[in-house]
Records
---
Amino acid sequence: MTWAASNLLMQQPRNLPTLFQANLPPHSIHSGERLEPYRLDGILPEVALFPKDEEQVASLLSICHAEALAVVPWGGGTR
């Protein structure tokens, strides 16, 4: 499952992929041009994350909660 995160508060611009680097390997963090497949209704996420287990999911959700980030689970891209 993929997790897409966007900054809801937009108080300060920040590099979202760097928030997750301590919790995921680089190949599990997509940003920039690699996000196009995750565009939904014209909205492009700022980052797409690919956790491999429950521990990583829990860690990512904790970060998103602390940073007031929206999380959208993505399961294969069907609508």
---
Amino acid sequence: MKNQIEIIEKFILRKLVKIKKKYKNFNKKKSFFDQSMDSLDFMKLTFLIEKKYKIKFSSRDFNKIQSINNVVKFIKKKL
């Protein structure tokens, strides 16, 4: 279980850096937007996650996935 969490976290962190290098030091607990992520980059990240894990985010889900930790929990529930 913990290994799956680490794999998901590493994937998200790698994709964040791929989107923009300035995202390399993201805090897993803080909101993406509190760490200067803009909405376009957030959408890019969600598309990459959807593609990788074959899940879909609805507009209602966006409030639930505001940090890396929240995204990991959300993905685990969907898998």
---
Amino acid sequence: MSAVSRDGEMPLGVSIPEDGAYTIAIPDNADTSDYEAVVLKDMTTGTESNLLDGAYMFNAGKGKEKTKLHIQGNLQDD
């Protein structure tokens, strides 16, 4: 999870190969023990999903999406 900004939010750019349904998830082998939440925000729909609770599914059209999705990591309090 080192690529996720700690206690910050950043855009998550994705390249969509064709129109359709897509899923974003944290890999099973990722170390997420320092995080209380890893929130994916869909800026188009206003949906927020904690990826620690499961994958996020969305529909998108072919092309590059630079502003649709944002990701935010929330560290656990010590």
